[in-house]
Design brief:
Number of strands: 7
Strand order of the largest sheet: 3-4-2-5-6-1-7
Helix content: 25-40%
Structural class: alpha/beta
Order of helices and strands: EHEHHEEEHEHE
Oligomer: single chain
Strand content: 15-25%
């Protein structure tokens, strides 16, 4: 499928359950905010509890209680706030050079209010969930959400949107990403899939 290259804006990470896709995306997000001052990422999940459990809390533990936490605190001491000030149930701020920069890492559920936020990158993790096996409501909601994400970016020309998930239901968002068809008026496409990322708008990692 090929490398995504350096200049990409839209990506889908669709791995089978248990393949550590959420871990991979957490690592990417943490690298981005630690090594890019004033960078911000918002993570969306099907619920706030899922967002907290699968994303924010594991990242916070890397610096507080996990093995090697003391070394990581020393390594990134210039980016970590004193006594982890501001780290809470929905936020993980880092030391920024711009006082007006958004909080580095924040989380929300897909049903949360989205107006008023502007960040550098967005992550949407498994918005359909297993309930999509029973009805298409979650798939329709996920499609609408993805279609409305661009205004949340500070600069859509360079901002990145990453979708993470497992295939659920008869017409999953994952298939629409594969075919690069997010038009809600058009059903599941047919025909060959373009697998070469160099030729795609939506870069994909699929397994």
């Amino acid at each position: 499928r090929g490398d995504w290259g350096q200049k990409w804006n839209l990506a889908g990470v669709y791995w089978f359950r248990g393949a550590m896709k959420s871990s991979a995306v957490r690592a990417w997000a943490l690298r981005e905010v630690l090594h890019k001052p004033n960078h911000s990422i918002r993570y969306f999940a099907s619920s706030m509890d899922n967002a907290r459990q699968n994303f924010l809390r594991p990242l916070q533990l890397l610096f507080t209680d996990a093995h090697g936490a003391e070394f990581r605190r020393w390594l990134y001491r210039h980016r970590l706030p004193t006594n982890f000030e501001g780290w809470g149930e929905e936020t993980m701020p880092l030391v920024q050079t711009d006082a007006k920069a958004p909080i580095a890492l924040t989380i929300k559920g897909v049903s949360s209010k989205r107006e008023g936020y502007h960040g550098n990158d967005l992550i949407l993790d498994d918005p359909e969930g297993a309930e999509a096996e029973k009805s298409n409501v979650e798939q329709v909601d996920a499609l609408e959400f993805v279609s409305s994400m661009t205004p949340l970016l500070i600069n859509p020309a360079v901002g990145r949107t990453v979708l993470v998930g497992t295939v659920h239901g008869p017409d999953p968002l994952a298939y629409r990403i594969l075919y690069e068809n997010l038009d809600p008026s058009v059903g599941a496409p047919e025909g060959p899939i373009e697998w070469a990322n160099k030729n795609r708008t939506w870069k994909i990692s699929w397994k």
